[in-house]
Design goal:
15 helices, four-stranded mixed β-sheet, about 400 residues, alpha/beta
Length: about 400
């Protein structure tokens, strides 16, 4: 393929990304794909030979590297080996998979659960399997890409409503044909803004207009609720979502995703969703690690309390220093920078002072809303958070953000 031929669409797309990456690398502003070479306990890692405080982690409860979880994974390898014998429906199902799904169902207060090999595949497969032409799927404009792709793949009429705007959602629902199949899908906690969906209102509207309700708990599991069970526990509304999706690679330090709900729903997905039928089963170590992690969350409730305290400290401290954090109330804290260049510059200054944060820029977020997508975890100590905030403050003043 001639990459000098700009008339070819594929070549043009590749060239545009390549040129942007080359520019960022030339000016020292490329910060992605940096390998972690060592976990150093707590929320510290070794990156590029430097001991750094990690403020870009999804391990919200600090479970990555937990001794009990590591042991469960090692024991599973000793018993089952490093992989499975195929897809779940044929020779790939282990008793570990069944145990994990029972653990998830109990944790979420659901009748049953089914697991997949990634969170992305979970949304893509579940949504596209449940819906088809003639149905309607309605989702928040800031929903995760995996939700959007599942909606598009389903063939259903795809509608979006303004972010967390329940009036706009209702206007969408009330104009749909009476008796039609409707599925409302939302993130519980939004991955770029850190805010929480208006769950009580969305439940009310879904019932009013006879719509199914699916909640993506990728970032709320372990973060919301007194015992970390998620958004339903957070609002005291257990059992009100029809379809509950979550990941096993954020608070749960493994890999994969799940759907929890009624037994009939899970039986359907276990026999009709393509990512279940045609993907290899979760490796034994990952299934065992995920299973043990749910038990650790219940056994160590102090982690949720500490996460809440660290979240409050970080949000209040960043705001008091003059930064805009949008409407976050969770451990995901957007530190707004404005244009992309300022976000890259703030990242560079922070990393040079051993605070590992990462920028989110357009097109991942709208132009002018580039940010650090900073996160805190239960593994951070108060003095570490204070140091990180001081570094970000100094850098923000130097760059002219605050």
């Amino acid at each position: 393929m001639d990459f000098d031929n700009n008339e070819d669409i594929v070549v043009g797309r590749i060239k545009a990304i390549t040129e942007r990456l080359e520019h960022l690398q030339e000016v020292g502003l490329y910060f992605y794909n940096q390998p972690v070479t060592e976990l150093r306990g707590g929320a510290r890692v070794l990156i590029n030979g430097r001991d750094m405080g990690l403020y870009a982690s999804y391990s919200y409860l600090g479970l990555l590297g937990h001794p009990r979880i590591n042991k469960a994974a090692k024991d599973a390898i000793d018993r089952y080996g490093t992989g499975t014998h195929g897809v779940r429906m044929l020779a790939g199902t282990l008793d570990l998979h069944r145990e994990l799904e029972e653990t998830i169902a109990e944790f979420k207060g659901a009748e049953a659960a089914v697991t997949y090999t990634s969170g992305y595949a979970t949304n893509l497969s579940a949504i596209s399997s449940l819906l088809g032409r003639g149905g309607y799927v309605i989702c928040d404009k800031l929903n995760h890409a995996s939700i959007v792709d599942g909606c598009l793949m389903s063939g259903a009429k795809f509608l979006r409503f303004r972010h967390n705007d329940m009036d706009d959602l209702e206007s969408r629902l009330k104009n749909l044909p009476e008796g039609s199949t409707k599925l409302v899908i939302v993130d519980a906690v939004f991955s770029m803004d850190g805010d929480v969906i208006d769950f009580p209102k969305i439940v009310e509207l879904s019932k009013k207009y006879h719509a199914w309700l699916m909640i993506d708990e990728a970032h709320s599991l372990g973060m919301l609720g007194k015992t970390g069970r998620g958004i339903e526990e957070h609002f005291g509304m257990e059992g009100t979502a029809d379809i509950n999706m979550g990941t096993l690679s954020k608070t749960i330090p493994s890999v994969g995703g799940y759907i929890a709900g009624k037994k009939e729903l899970i039986e359907f997905l276990s026999h009709a969703s393509r990512a279940y039928i045609f993907s290899a089963a979760l490796p034994p170590a990952q299934a065992a690690a995920a299973n043990e992690a749910f038990k650790v969350i219940l056994d160590e409730p102090w982690r949720i309390e500490k996460l809440n305290a660290n979240t409050k400290q970080f949000i209040n401290g960043i705001q008091e220093r003059g930064f805009d954090t949008l409407n976050t109330s969770t451990a995901i804290v957007p530190v707004l920078c404005g244009d992309d260049e300022r976000a890259f510059a703030l990242t560079r200054e922070a990393q040079q002072h051993d605070v590992f944060v990462l920028p989110v820029v357009s097109p991942a977020v709208p132009p002018g809303l580039a940010r650090l997508r900073a996160t805190v975890t239960a593994a951070h100590e108060a003095d570490e958070i204070e140091y990180a905030m001081n570094v970000i403050e100094t850098a923000g003043k130097k760059i002219g953000i605050i």
